[in-house]
Amino acid sequence: MKAALELLVSLIMRFEGCRLKAYRDVRGIWTIGWGETAGVKEGMVWTQAQADAVLRMRVSQFLLGVYKRAPMLWLEPPERAAACGSLAYNIGLGAFNASTVKRKTNSGEWELAANAFLLWNKSGGRVVNGLTLRRRRERGFYLSAGG
């Protein structure tokens, strides 16, 4: 799990960017640090160390949640778990649990699972270019594990 955790932290840092002052994301949700939304309120300010520590803690929680929902990943290269963890961090564990990505991963249908990442490129019903790019990168990372 450690390798997947380090890969996932790296992916999140690449995709999310870090802002130390609370801001509203594209859906209007208060966000801070590396995409953290839990308990965030207008006017909050964090240090870089605080943002990094919260990221590691939350990413660990999400990765464990992904392994719980897609136990097949325990047997796979860490890139697959990291890609799924990145998706879950962005869309939530509930949405990940209902996703084709999870179902096809659990059945070992790697190519179909990878292609299903591309379905998660919308916010508020609109295609978001940044999400499209992120999903392509997650898909590529998932497939880089081989199989």
Task: Describe what is shown at a glance.
58% of the residues lie in helices and 10% in strands. It is built from 7 helices and 4 strands, in the order αββαααααββα. Helix 1 packs across helix 2, helix 5 runs antiparallel to helix 6 and helix 6 packs antiparallel against helix 7.
Structural descriptors:
7 helices; 10% strand; 147 residues; Lysozyme; two-stranded antiparallel sheet; 58% helix; globular; mainly alpha
Task: Give the topology.
Elements: H1 2-16, E1 19-24, E2 30-33, H2 48-69, H3 78-91, H4 93-97, H5 100-106, H6 110-116, E3 122-123, E4 126-127, H7 129-143
Antiparallel strand pairs: 1-2, 3-4
Flag low-confidence runs: none
Tally of extended strands?
A: 4
Mean pLDDT: 94
Describe the largest sheet: 2 strands, antiparallel
Helix content: 55-70%
Order of helices and strands: HEEHHHHHEEH
Structural class: mainly alpha
Which oligomeric form is depicted? single chain
CATH architecture: Orthogonal Bundle
Ends: how far apart?
19 Å
Shape: globular
Strand content: 5-15%
Number of helices: 7
- Our Rg estimate from Cα atoms comes to 15 Å
Kindly provide the name of the CATH class.
Answer: Mainly Alpha
Number of domains: 1
- The largest beta-sheet arranges its strands as 1-2
